[in-house]
Amino acid sequence: MPDRVEITVITKSSLRSHTGLEHLLNAFESIKGFTPTHWGLDERAPNPYNRNELLATVSTFKSDFYLPGIQRKQATRYKAYFSARNEGLNYVSVEFGASLRQKDFRSVFALGDALAKELEAEFGFVHPVWLEGSQEYCASGKITADELQKYGLSPVCAYTWFGSDLVKMIGRESLLNSGAIIKDMPWGGVRLDLVEHPWESDVETLSSHQLCVMKNLESSGIFGDYTKVLEYKPGENWKPISHQILLEKV
Fold this sequence. Notes:
- This protein is α+β, with helices and mostly antiparallel strands.
- The chain is about 30% helix and about 20% strand.
- The protein has helices at about 20-30, 50-60, 100-120, 135-140, 145-150, 165-170, 170-175, 205-215, and strands at about 5-10, 40, 45-50, 70, 80, 90-95, 125-130, 160, 180-185, 190-195.
- Helix 1 (about 20-30) runs antiparallel to helix 2 (about 50-60) and helix 1 packs antiparallel against helix 3.
- It is globular and about 45 Å long.
């Protein structure tokens, strides 16, 4: 089992609007045993989860300052937070720690799928991390919406979603010939799987497949250089995603 699993989904959906928040919460509640138990105005999420209270509170925020937190403090445990913006891209970050049970591992990927579908992901991933794995591999699953817009994509992970804008930038043919498994998504994007059934895989397999796939995709020039903290560099062909936010997604 990995030491942790990270999910990130970057979206044009407003996560301060009632509609966008409903889609977000629908994703968490759609996976058996994953409904949040707590929420709050920051990552500490001290309040017992109340869907209506969260919707009413976050939808009335007057600024982009808040990163509301969502947690499940009983099995299956996770910590999550999201940007509650009405401008620019939003992102959702979820982390499962070492308490994750083998029997729930596959459901983490199902949660990633649910979040990507509900929020029509522009970019996103599920990233299992083993501490004994390579530093390059472990660092793959760290990106915010602002970093994406400024520098470009981070390396692909076990599951990676690309919205239609990114599919055009990379090239559908390049994705199909990357050595990964490519699956069309209902909102016009694709999901890239490094291997079949990644919840059954290990760090060596995922890391080696990541290297092979990235060799085939890096020529697109839209992947950023995230190897040095505070010295990130944009991909030579990177162009920020059009960020007209979807206030009325239904």
